[in-house]
Amino acid sequence: MRAITGALALALGGAAAGTLPTAAATGSVVMSANVLAGIDRLTAVGQPAASTPMTIALGVARPNPVAEQAALHAMYDPAGPLYHQFLDVASFAQRFGVPQQRRDAITSWLRGGGLHVFLVSASGDLVEAGGTASQVNALFATTVRTYHAGGRDFLANDRAPSVPAGLGITTVMGLNTWQHASVPQRTAAPAATARCYPTNFCTGVWTAEQMWSLYDLPAQLTGRGQRIAILGTGDAGSASTPGSVIADLRQYESEHHFPLVPYTVHCVMGGDCGTDTSNAGEWDLDQSASIGMAPSVDHLDYYFAKDLTDSNQAAMIGGWLSDPQGPLQANASFSECEQGPYNAALYAAPGNVDGDGGLHNGPVGPTGHQLGDNLEAYAEPALLSGALMGRTLFSSAGDTGTGCTAVVADGIGPNGIGPEPYPTNPYPAGSRYAVAVGGTVLYRDSTADPYKRGLEYAWPYTGGGSSPFLTAPDYQKNVPNLTGTCVTDENGGTGATGQLCRGVPDVAAMSGDILSNGYAIVSGGADTSSGGTSLSSPLWMGMWARIQQASGSPGGLGFANYTFYAAGKDPVRYGNNFFDVTVGSNGAPCPSGPCIAQKGWDYVSGWGVPDVARFAADVAPKHTVAAPDAVPGGAGQNAGGGTPGPPQTGILNLPNTSAVTSAAGRATLAAVAVAGLLVTAVRRRRSRTSR
Q1: Over 70: is that where the pLDDT of 284 sits?
Q2: If 260 and its partner were Cys, which of 142, 325, 386, 644 is the partner (CB 3.0–4.6 Å)?
Q3: How far is the C-alpha of 244 from the C-alpha of 251, rounded, in Å?
Q4: Backbone angles phi, psi at 102, to 5 degrees
Q5: CA Rg, the chain, in Å?
C-alpha cells in the first residue's frame, strides 16, 4: 500500500477506538462513528435556531449478507447455471431487503420524533427524513451546534448520536455540514494548444467524433437500447433556460447533429433538487462526455440532490438503485476520502493546511472537507445490491495522484498542484462495487486520417493506489502488480490486516492535461474544453453503453468490473480489448514500488484504455463490428442514423417505497440463498475548463 507516515500510524491506536456502534444500558446504540473526531476540542460559536431544517439519512443493515455474497458469486460465475441471471429491483427487495416489520419500526420512531419521512429505498436499506434541529437533537440524544473552521461556519453534533437498539441502523448521515464530497474545482484556462511535432504526434482538444476514431468506437453501436444516468446536484434547468445543464445538453446535441436524447430529472430529496447551479459545469462535462460516446441511448436520467453532503449522496445512490427503470450504468464525478481509523487521527492533528488553504490548530479545520465519510457504511452494501441487479457505477479516481484530498498543500507541484499525501482512495470510486476510472493524456498520430493514437501516457495527477482498509473483491484476486495489503479494516479492527486490499483504478480513459490535451464540451451556453478524471469516467460510461448494446442481452453484462478483469487476466483477450498504458506515474510509493504505469494492471491506469470495437466483438462474437466512420476535420454526424426525437422533460419524484412489491424479477435465485507535463495551476481535484 502507499506509505503511511509515522505520525499517522502512531495516532491510529487512539483514533480507531470507539468507531463501532456500542450498545448503551438504556437499550439504545451509540453511533460512535457518526461524530467528527476531535469536535469536543473545538469551541462552539453558537447554536442553530431550533427551527433550522435538517435532513437525516439512516443506513440500515440488510438481513443476509452471506447469502448476498453467494448470489453475487453465482451470478458472475461463467460456468454456473445462474450466470448473468440478475435480479430486478422488486426481486432483490423481496429476497434480500430489510423486513417490513423493521422498516415500520424505523419510520415510526422517526415520525414519533416529529420528522417527516420522505424516502425509503426499495430494499429498505436507506431511510431519509427531514425535521428541525430541535427535533433532531431530541431524537438522537445529541446537540447540533455551530462551529467555525476553514474560514466558514458549519453545523455539527457535539457528541455521538444514539438510536434504538435492534433496528439495524448502521450509520447516521446529515448531522454535520462539514463532511461532503467535492467536484473538481474549475479555473479559467487557455484552450489546449493544437500542435504537431516531428515525432509524429499532435496535441489538441478532441471532439466526440474524433474520440470515436481514437478509441475505435464501432459505427453501428451507438448506445441504442441503453439508458445512462448522471448523479449530481442542483437545478438542471430546462431547454429554454439559457446556460442551464439541460440547455447545454440540447446545444451540444445540436452542434454535433446528434439525436435529442429523452431525459428525466429525478429530484431524490423529496422532490427538491434545490436551486444551486455552482456545479453545473461538472454535469455539463458528464453529459457531453457520455452522450458524445453514446449519442443514441434511449434515455438520460439525472438523479439530483441539493448538495454533496453524505445524506444527499446517499439519496442519489438510493434513488438510482430503487428506480425499477434505472439505467444499468451511472456516473459519479465526485468523491471524498474513504472511511477509516486514520481519518480521526488526521482530524485531531494540528497545523495541517486545510482544503481552503488556511492554517488551523483546531481538531476539525486542518484536514479539509472530504476527510472521512458517514456514507460508506450505507453505500458499500448498496452498491453491492447494484451489482446483483446488473448495474455499474462509474466513478472518477480523482485528480490528486496516489493520495486522497485530505491534507491539501497547494502549490507544491511543478504546475501549482501536487499529489496529496493522505494514503487512501477516493470514495465512491474506491468501492469494491464501483468502477474507478483513471486518467491519461492522449495525442493523435499526425500521419493518420481518421485519427489514431500517436501517444498515450498516464496523467501525472490521476488517482490510484491501494486502500489501507477495504479488502480486495474476488475479481481482483490473482492480478499481477496488485499486491497492497490492508493495515486494518475501516473500523480499526485487525480482521483485514495482511489481506489483499482494494486497488484502483480499474480502467482508464483520456483525462487530458488542459494545456496540451482536452475534450470539447458545451458549458454555460459556450463551446469550451475540459478534462480530469471526471472526464475519463463518463467517457467510459458512454463506451460501456455501446459494449452493452453489443451484448444483445436486455439484462446486459452486469457489473462491468467482472468483464474487465476477466478480459485482463486472459492474455489474448487483454491484447485485443485494451491498450496497455505503460508510460507515466502518479506519485510514490505503491505496494510494488513507485507508482508507475507498467505492463498489465497497475495502480496508475488499471488495465488501460479500451478498443471498443474489439471489446464489443469479444462480448458478442455473433456481431460483425465495423470500423468507425471517418470524421473529416471532426465534423459532427448524426450517429444515431435517425430523426431526432422531441425532448422529454419534467421532474420525476421517486415514490416512498416503504412497502415492498413482491413481483417476480427477471430471475429467481434458488439454492444460493511519462512524466508530469503541461498542467495548469489549479487547486485540488479539479476539472480544467477553458472559456
Answers
A1: yes
A2: 644
A3: 10
A4: -75, -35
A5: 24
Q: Give 398's contacts (C-beta < 8 A, 6+ positions apart).
A: 335, 404, 405, 425, 426, 429, 462, 463, 533, 685
The Cα angle at residue 655 between residues 132 and 274, in degrees rounded to 5: 50
Question: How confident is the model over 304-339, as pLDDT tens digits?
Answer: 999 999 999 999 999 999 999 999 999 999 988 887
pLDDT per residue over 480-501, tens digit each?
999 999 888 777 788 888 899 9
Query: Is residue 350 over pLDDT 70?
Result: no
Q: Is the peptide bond before 21 cis (omega within 30 degrees of 0)?
A: no
Residue type, 129: A
User: Residue 88 carries which side chain, given as an amino acid letter?
Assistant: D
> Angle at which helices 376-388 and 89-96 pack, to 10 degrees?
120
Euclidean distance between the first and the last CA atom of the chain, given in angstroms as a whole number? 39
Under a CB-based contact definition with an 8 Å cutoff, are residues 546 and 612 in contact? yes
Q: Residue 678's CB: how many other CB atoms inside 10 A?
A: 16
For residue 675, count CB atoms less than 10 angstroms from its CB and return exposed for 0-12, middle for 13-18, buried for 19 or more.
exposed
Could you report the per-residue pLDDT of 201-226, keeping only the tens digit for each?
999 999 999 999 999 999 999 999 99
Q: Is the CB of residue 543 less than 8 Å from the CB of residue 612?
A: yes
Percent of the chain with pLDDT over 70: 76
Phi/psi for 243 (5° steps) reads: 80, 0
- Written as nine digits, the cell of 689 is 475548463
H or E segment to which residue 543 belongs? helix 533-551
d(CA 577, CA 305): 36
- Cβ contact 71:645 at 8 Å: no
pLDDT at 66: 98
CA-to-CA distance for 122 and 674, rounded, in angstroms? Answer: 47
| Residue 359 neighbours by CB distance under 10 Å | 11
CA 549, 552, 554, 559 dihedral sign is negative
Whose CA is closest to 688, among 259, 282, 267?
A: 282
Distance CA 464, CA 606 (A): 8
CB contact at 8 A, 140 and 131: no
For residue 7, how many C-alpha atoms fall within 13 Å in the half-sphere facing its CB? Answer: 12
CA atoms within 13 A on the CB side of 484: 34
Query: Whole-prediction pTM value?
Result: 0.85
CB contact set of 142 (below 8 Å; sequence gap of 6+): 35, 136, 157, 158, 159, 160, 161, 162, 175
Does residue 404 contact residue 425 with C-beta atoms inside 8 Å? Answer: yes
CA distances from 527 to 74, 213, 524, 689 (A): 47, 21, 8, 11
Asked if the peptide bond before residue 428 counts as cis, ω within 30 degrees of 0, the response is yes
Q: Among candidates 299, 689, 337, 690, which has minimal Cα distance to 504?
A: 337
- 18 pLDDT tier (thresholds 50, 70, 90): very low
What is the biggest distance separating any 2 CA atoms in the chain, rounded to whole angstroms? Answer: 76
DSSP string, 95-142: HHSPPHHHHHHHHHHHHHTTPEEEEE-TTSSEEEEEEEHHHHHHHHT-
**Which has the minimum average pLDDT: 28-42, 66-80, 97-111, 546-560?**
28-42
Cα atoms found within 13 Å of the Cα of residue 162, Cβ hemisphere only: 16
Residue 66 sits at the vertex; the CA angle it makes with 492 and 373, to the nearest 5 degrees, is 35
pLDDT of residue 48: 97
DSSP summary character for residue 180? B
CB 217 within 8 A of CB 543: yes
